[in-house]
Design a protein that fits this description.
The complex is a heterodimer.
Chain A: E1 3-10, E2 13-20, H1 25-32, E3 51-54, E4 57-60, E5 73-75, H2 89-97, H3 106-119, H4 125-131, H5 142-150
Parallel strand pairs in A: 1-5
Antiparallel strand pairs in A: 1-2, 3-4, 3-5
Helix pairs in contact in A: 2-5
Chain B: E1 4-6, H1 11-21, E2 25-28, H2 32-39, E3 47-50, E4 60-63, E5 66-70, H3 75-80, H4 82-87, H5 89-95, H6 101-106, H7 109-115, H8 122-128, E6 132-136, E7 142-146, E8 151-153, E9 156-157, E10 164-171, E11 177-184, E12 195-203, E13 209-217, E14 224-225, H9 227-233, H10 240-248, H11 264-283
Parallel strand pairs in B: 1-3, 2-3
Antiparallel strand pairs in B: 4-5, 5-10, 6-7, 6-10, 8-9, 11-12, 12-13, 13-14
Helix pairs in contact in B: 9-10, 10-11
Classes of the chains: A alpha+beta, B alpha+beta.
Chain lengths: 159, 284
């Protein structure tokens, strides 16, 4: 097994880590960086629990080999809040509108919606539904999740 | 799983690595299919050749009479490319409906073709549009081959050891040629299709079918070209009855297996229904 020196920017912090060739990004984030907000669900890229941003692009951390993201920026749920701990408007919206039930899918839901609002700040409800297709909520709390995202799209943005 | 990971800086170096290690080596593009198969224990290469950002395998641009799509283009890059949208809207729309946003950001065109999952959407569409793969081999060797016939069995393509897909060339089509890709998704939008149908047709000024191609996915070990359907249409006047009769021939052009999405008989019937719909769209 080959070992690889990786340089990553994780939640804004330049970081170096040595990984074996077969390590998955999700395991490096959770075990090496201690970023356990990113959850593992299905482990086959279907459920969306492990959603992270790789160079601002939404991906399943369970399907990405760590060696493939050398030199790239990674953002996880832990990176969305400000330095003073204040949450992003989207995170606040999930809390205010009850965008979660048991909570295990929530980091993935929030990361996926963050990526959507980056790309389409004025996303319509239909676009939100389509984009969020791959983030499952087994409590079936979809209405709350949808409302939480709709509320922070550009035409609806309120504080 | 234990392998050496290589990161070549040129196509020739990648080809050399693949050649040196033969059956013990695999090329890695986006890595989504690779990782899934690794987890399932279906592959165990000793050497993995990461293709990273090899320039010769990237890019989307127009060439004389064709569209070039580099093998390392992700599904999302193809779906959003203004060049693809302008010149082959069907390809852009098809890629936009593969799996989820996450997969489309990771999975590449070349990886999709080399993986050769018969239930995937891109191969039928690319074959219907007569796309060709551009392939690199040892000693700077390059060849070009039609994707029609390139898929040889489940998860198998006609690549020799040491060969690498650099990209595809898709011929530009005349303005009166119409194309579509339809898929039947009775469960969820990100599921594999029960059946996928790509159809391309040109109807002449007299209302006769001048040419057509029909290729189906998820109903056989490879993308299945329905040549008898194409032959039944050729030179005929487009009527609802003609399209229905031609579509009914698709039942015997495919080889579906029974799985959670239905029995072979059910899939043959759904293939007929969706082929008729696709033909109606491209001949309207």
């Amino acid at each position: 097994m080959s070992l690889h020196d990786l340089n990553l920017i994780v939640n804004g912090v330049p970081s170096a880590v040595v990984v074996e060739a077969d390590r998955l990004l999700i395991d490096v984030l959770r075990d090496d960086f201690g970023l356990t907000g990113t959850k593992e669900g299905c482990a086959i890229g279907v459920c969306g629990l492990c959603s992270v941003l790789v160079d601002r692009r939404l991906m399943s951390a369970c399907l990405v080999l760590a060696v493939c993201v050398d030199g790239l920026t990674i953002e996880t749920i832990e990176g969305l809040s400000e330095a003073d701990g204040s949450l992003s408007p989207l995170q606040e919206s999930f809390i205010r509108r009850g965008g979660f039930q048991c909570g295990i899918c929530t980091p993935g839901q929030v990361i996926a919606a963050t990526a959507l609002l980056d790309e389409k700040p004025d996303a319509t409800e239909a676009e939100i539904r389509e984009w969020m297709t791959g983030n499952l909520c087994r409590c079936t709390g979809y209405e709350g999740i949808l409302e939480s995202i709709v509320a922070v799209t550009r035409p609806n943005r309120v504080t | 799983m234990s392998f050496e990971y290589h990161q070549p800086t040129s196509v020739d170096e990648a080809v050399s690595l693949l050649q040196d290690h033969g059956d013990d080596a695999m090329a890695l593009a986006g890595g989504s299919a690779f990782t899934l198969f690794m987890k399932l224990g279906l592959i165990s290469p000793g050497h993995v050749v990461g293709l990273g950002n090899l320039e010769e395998m990237g890019g989307i641009h127009l060439e004389p009479n064709c569209l070039w799509i580099g093998a390392l283009s992700t599904h999302a890059e193809i779906e959003k490319s203004p060049i693809v949208r302008d010149h082959h809207r069907t390809i852009a729309d098809m890629f936009a409906r593969v799996a989820t946003v996450r997969l489309r950001n990771q999975a590449t065109l070349g990886g999709n073709i080399a993986h050769a999952d018969p239930a995937q959407d891109p191969p039928p569409t690319l074959i219907a549009l007569d796309a060709r793969a551009v392939i690199a081999g040892p000693n700077g060797y390059r060849r070009e081959t039609p994707l029609d016939g390139f898929f040889t069995d489940y998860f198998s393509v006609a690549l020799e050891p040491g060969e690498l897909i650099l990209g595809v060339r898709v011929p530009l089509v005349a303005a009166d040629t119409r194309a579509t890709y339809m898929k039947f998704l009775p469960r969820s939008a990100d599921d594999y299709a029960t059946v996928g149908v790509a159809a391309v047709a040109r109807v002449d000024h007299d209302g006769l079918v001048a040419s057509s191609r029909v290729v189906l996915g998820a109903v056989g070990p490879t993308p299945m070209r329905a040549k008898r359907v194409e032959q039944a249409l050729l030179g005929q006047r487009v009527t609802p009855q003609l399209l229905a009769e031609a579509a009914s021939l698709v039942r015997d052009e495919i080889d579906p297996i029974a799985d959670a999405r239905g029995s072979p008989d059910y899939k043959r019937e759904m293939a007929r229904v969706w082929t008729e719909r696709a033909l109606t769209t491209v001949t309207a």
